[in-house]
């Protein structure tokens, strides 16, 4: 009789043929089988609570039959015929209408993409095309935050610091100090917003506005630590950009479509971006969809120019995207996002006194817990204990059945918006207990066997 393969069997096969982004893929690999709501199961039948939403993208939870039905029906009718040139399909029209209706008022058009990195790359090309069309081909440079993330394309990597031997740091990028309200040491003991606005003005003066095409900015900092920003940060920064004819490209790959409790955080902050980049959350990852949304002026200026892709306006993706919006509204998931986010911050409050916890922050279900070895200097705990990067998520998973990841020095807490109050309490308990288990001397967690 043939026996069902176990996780160990799958892991062995995985190791021989699959390469995982970011490494991993060893004995601790979790081979997922299926999910429902905020819960996932592995192939051995163990269940886990997902507190990270995959790559911070799941909004409506797993196993949505409504989305599967819409996708199957659309696939039977028409899966994909690129909407380049004279072609269109009805789902992409309806999806774009629904997106524009929820976007900041000045945003009028959608270009469909398939992933965040590609959308950022295309927005970058469009920014330069826009400037050239307006008679400023010499406006090429891009303002950007240090440690920002705008995708894994060569352009994204080069603009955000480069990688030796792969993509050299772009001479076109002008790197600014990122807004990190917790790290007051970055701002010479001055008001953060005042410092950043002054630095922006100085950078424009140094390089000359006539050499700068656009600024790319995450509307709330995502991979850099899930950081909400003061209400006046972007309004003041974008006012300076506008003064100098520099476009503002709002990267809402993480914040867009509800992660922080609003459809668009740029709208919440009262901004009128020239372009908005979206990906991750616009379909909860059920299909790889992304978009660049544009103001009327940008849309008219770049119309017919710039890059495209074979999957543009993917009919299945658009149909799923539209139903995804309906689910979020039908089930009041933005309201749940705000309420559960507040619950998280309240129930995590006891961690504030822990010597390794420097900062707990968040807006909606976009939260970060920053780990420090010294509360005074805010020195990163991971520097002293790099093993915690892998061990803490493994401990949370094995001891408490909770899935969570870190990036640099921060636990990123971004569960699906369907998470319920009891599940929030379970995650908070798990975090409090797990961080409490880090030995203050050795900085090690209790030994856990390989699964
Ligand atoms: N921008 C931001 C702010 C992101 O967080 C990410 C993904 N982590 C991207 C762009 C790139 O998106 P993708 O992974 O879909 O290429």
Key attributes of the depicted protein:
451 residues, alpha/beta, 7-stranded mixed β-sheet, 5-stranded antiparallel β-sheet, 15 helices, 37% helix, 17% strand, binds 4'-deoxy-4'-aminopyridoxal-5'-phosphate
Quick take:
The chain has 451 residues and is of the alpha/beta class.
Written overview of the protein:
By secondary structure, the chain is of the alpha/beta class. The protein has 15 helices and 16 strands. It has helices at 7-17, 53-56, 65-77, 90-102, 116-133, 154-159, 192-207, 233-243, 265-268, 296-302, 315-330, 333-347, 381-384, 388-400, 421-436, and strands at 32-36, 39-42, 47-50, 107-113, 141-145, 173-176, 212-218, 247-251, 275-278, 290-295, 357-363, 366-374, 379-380, 402-403, 405-407, 410-413. The strands form 3 sheets. A 7-stranded mixed beta sheet has the order 4-10-9-8-7-5-6, sandwiched between helices. Strands 11, 12, 13, 15 and 16 form a 5-stranded antiparallel beta sheet that branches. Strands 1-2-3-14 form a 4-stranded mixed beta sheet. Strand 11 and strand 12 form a beta hairpin. Helix 4 packs across helix 11, helix 7 runs parallel beside helix 8 (233-243) and helix 14 crosses helix 15 (421-436). The radius of gyration is 22 Å and the shape is globular. It starts with 6 loop residues before the first helix and ends in a 15-residue tail after the last helix. The site of 4'-deoxy-4'-aminopyridoxal-5'-phosphate (PMP) has 17 residues, from helix 5. 4'-deoxy-4'-aminopyridoxal-5'-phosphate (PMP) binds next to helix 5.
